From TrEMBL:
SUPFAM superfamilies: Enolase C-terminal domain-like (SSF51604), Enolase N-terminal domain-like (SSF54826). GO terms for molecular function: galactonate dehydratase activity; metal ion binding. This is Mandelate racemase/muconate lactonizing enzyme C-terminal domain-containing protein. The lineage of its organism: Eukaryota, Fungi, Dikarya, Basidiomycota, Pucciniomycotina. Its cofactor is Mg(2+). InterPro entries: DgoD-like, Enolase-like_C_sf, Enolase-like_N, Enolase_C-like, Galactonate_deHydtase, Mandel_Rmase/mucon_lact_enz_CS, Mandelate_racemase_C, Mandelate_racemase_N_dom.
Length: 407
């Protein structure tokens, strides 16, 4: 038994989750969070039998809010059977009345990923094995070029090609007003042409910076140059507006990093206004819900391209789904990304970074148990201690008139 159960009228109250079959019970002993540079929030869950699972609950710029949600998780889930991932997910999602949103879902994502890591380690298999086995042997990835305010992209694209990438992503524009000079869009076309000239594919991230007044113009200008996709061409919430834009362009439209759970993606799927769904595994509901979103997308002939400008745990978790999901297309990889400053990059906290080696634009099947990565816990603890008062914040932009602009 994982739990004491009491009967109140027709309702059963389970203090600490469902009972387990003999041998399948390994109770959650501790849940810890680590706020580390460059901007990541790692989660460590340990069981009574000493299995340690790692999750990532990074919500860039809002770590304190997510850490706060973990006080409730500790109160609720310490003492639950770590094997009951779905019951814990459902309890976390549904049993506090309020649900969804970026803060609660990022917290739940980190816990969910850690529990899947424990599941794989307990069984001695990679997570993709438990998700139904592999459907591919390698997964395509893309790196970033250009930073927040894209420039010198040709040199950076050449470097990416040398590193083994066959596709990159860059921001399409700097900040724009609701209506801006059409000349502001010409540089975007030039940059895309430059990067494509070396034989590399390019996804263009509009980053929600472009309002619909200019999004339709930009899409038309880009169309002859065939970007791999345009991402967040409009801010989330504009389903009807996106539907109109979709009808005006043949460029694949991608979106999803600011959508959480199937409930959030549903209107976009039903409206038929996207080609690629980009859930972020650290926000959308961890491995459990991200896999479900990908499966749901398949029924609409929508491809799955995990958003992942985050740390090694989120990246490994995304790849576990990539290896076991038929409509996977390509995964974002934050190695040498502009946010990873100083000594802190994708491999910093790993002791087996070789598993993420990029060859011919792809990463080989992860074969280790659980997430398939090994972490330097001592360094994580030391860095979290050093970063106690550090919180990454995104830039805040204003136009020349002083008005706020989207970042
Ligand atoms: Mg984006």
């Amino acid at each position: 038994m994982a739990s004491a159960m009491t009967q109140v009228g027709s309702t059963r109250v389970y203090e600490k989750g469902l009972a387990g079959a003999p041998g399948s019970v390994d109770l959650i002993k501790s849940i810890e969070t680590f706020n580390v540079r460059p901007r990541w929030l790692f989660v460590r869950v340990e069981t009574e039998k000493g299995i340690v699972g790692w999750g990532e609950a990074t919500l860039e710029g809002h770590s304190e809010a997510v850490i706060g949600a973990y006080a409730d998780f500790r109160e609720r889930f310490i003492g639950w059977n770590s094997a009951d991932i779905e019951d814990i997910y459902q309890t976390a999602y549904r049993h506090r009345f309020y649900r969804g949103g970026e803060v609660l879902m990022s917290a739940l994502s980190g816990l969910d990923i850690a529990l899947w890591d424990i599941k794989g380690k307990t069984l001695g298999v990679p997570i993709w094995e438990v998700l139904g086995g592999k459907v591919r042997e390698r997964a395509q990835v893309y790196g970033w070029i250009g930073g927040d305010r894209p420039s010198d992209v040709l040199e950076q694209a050449k470097a990416r090609k040398e590193q083994g990438f066959t596709a990159v992503k860059m921001n399409a524009v700097e900040s724009l007003g609701w209506l801006d000079s059409p000349h502001a869009l010409d540089a975007t076309v030039k940059r895309l042409e430059e990067v494509k000239s070396i034989g590399i594919d390019v996804g263009l991230d509009f980053h929600g910076r472009v309002h619909k007044t200019l999004a339709k113009q930009l899409a038309r200008k880009l169309e002859p140059h065939q970007p791999l996709f345009i991402e967040e061409p409009l801010l989330p919430g504009h389903v009807e507006e996106l539907k109109k834009l979709y009808a005006q362009t043949t460029i694949p439209i991608a979106l999803g990093e600011r959508l959480f759970t199937r409930q959030d993606v549903r209107p976009y799927f039903e409206a038929g206004c996207i080609d690629v769904i980009q859930p972020d595994i650290s926000h959308a509901g961890g491995i459990s819900e991200t896999r479900r979103i990908a499966n749901m997308a398949e029924t609409y002939d929508i491809g799955f391209a995990p958003h992942c400008p985050l740390g090694p745990i989120a990246f490994a978790a995304s790849l576990q789904i990539a290896f076991s999901t038929p409509n996977f297309l390509i995964c974002e990889m934050s190695w040498k990304m502009h946010y990873n400053k100083g000594d802190y990059d994708l491999f910093t906290y790993m002791t087996n970074p070789e598993v993420f080696q990029v060859r011919d634009g792809m990463i080989d099947l992860l074969t280790g148990p659980g997430l398939g990565i090994e972490l330097n816990e001592k360094l994580i603890r030391a860095q979290a201690e050093e970063s106690k008062d550090f919180n990454w914040r995104n830039p805040t932009w204003r136009g020349v008139d002083g008005g706020i602009r989207e970042w």
